[in-house]
Structures are given as C-alpha cells and as structure tokens.
Amino acid sequence: MKNIYLTLAVIGLVGPNYFIFQFIISHGFDLLLIVNQLYSNFADLAFSINLLLCSIFFWYYMYTKRNVNNMRFAKAYIFLNLMLGLSFSFPLYLYKESDSKNE
Predict the structure, then answer these.
(1) Residue 68 belongs to what domain range?
(2) What are φ and ψ of residue 9, in 5° steps?
(3) What percent of the chain has pLDDT over 70?
(4) pTM (2 decimals)?
(5) Confidence of residue 49 (pLDDT cuts 50, 70, 90)
(6) Rounded distance, CA 51 to CA 36, Å?
C-alpha cells in the first residue's frame, strides 16, 4: 500500500502541474490572469470551492491526528498543499503516515 501512496503522490505532482506549466509557457506568470480564468464561470468556481474545502478538511484531519500518528511536519504538508496541490500533499501524507504506523 505504501508504494501506491508514493505513486499517487508522483502522479498528483506531475499531472496537474503539467497544465500549470503549459499555461505559464503560453501566457507567462500572470497571477491576475490565472485567478480570472480560475473563476471565469460557476462550474470553475464550484471545482475551486470544492478543492478549497477538501484542503481545509485535510488540514483539520491532519492536525487532529498529528499527535496520534507522531506526525511532526503538519505545517510542511500545508505548505506543500498550497504550493503544489492537494493531489500531491495528501498521498504524500498517507505515505508518511503509513511509515509512522509501521514503526
């Protein structure tokens, strides 16, 4: 199971960020344009709000479990979530959590 989490983390890192890099190559790093396109219609907004809520739920879950699972790096996972995405940080968290359960 541990290898699956690591594989999912790599896929979660490469997959979404490929499209971000394609956008940056096409338009440059224009943060205002990214935000405008991200919230251009209600469907995009629904996906964005869903992802934001999932991230917040993940942070809450992680903080409630950090003492139980001996996770000392909760802030690092929040940083990774904000910088690289939930699809990377959550499987990486599960990967490291499976390490702490095996110890």
Answers:
(1) 2-102
(2) -65, -40
(3) 91
(4) 0.84
(5) very high
(6) 17
Give the count of domains, the chain: 1
Please tell me the distance from the alpha carbon of residue 36 to that of residue 16, in angstroms, as a whole number: 18
Task: Look at residue 82 in the predicted model and tell me its pLDDT.
Answer: 94
What ranges in the chain are assigned the alpha helix state H? 2-27, 31-38, 42-65, 74-84, 86-102
Interatomic CA distance for residues 94 and 76, integer angstroms: 14
Cα-based distances in Å from 74 to 57, 62, 95 = 13, 7, 13
Token pair recorded at residue 83 = 């910088």
Q: Are 5 and 94 in contact (CB under 8 A)?
A: yes
C-alpha 101/C-alpha 103 separation (Å) is 6
Q: What does the buried/exposed string (b/e) look like for 12-27 if buried means 16 or more CB atoms within 10 Å of the residue's CB? A: bbeeeeeeeeeeeeee
